Amino acid sequence: MSFATVPLHYAEVQVDDIPTFQHRGDPVVRCAPTGVAAHNISGYTLHRLFHISPQKPEDAISDNQRSRMQAEFRDIRYIIIDEKSMVSLQMLGVLHSRCCEAFPEYNHLPFGGVNVIICGDFAQLPPVMGKALYMPMSSNITKQSEMLGVEMYSRFNRTVVLTHIVRQAGEDEESRGFREVLNSLRDATLTEQQWSMLTRRIQSNLTLAEVEEFVDALRIFPVKTSVSSYNVQKLRALQSPVIIVKATNTGSDKAKDAPVDIASNLHAALPLSINCRVMLSSNIWVQCGLVNGAVGTVRRILWNPDTTRPQDTQPAAVFVEFDEYTPGLPGSISIDGRCCVPVFPVTNEFHYDGQECSRTQLPLALAYAITVHKSQGISVLKAVLDISLKEFSPGLSYVAISRVRTFKGLMFTKSFDYERFKRSPPRPGRPDVMTLRINDTARRALQPLEQFDPTVPGHLPLSPQRN
Question: 8, 25, 29, 199: which has the highest count of C-beta atoms within 10 A?
Answer without folding.
Answer: 29
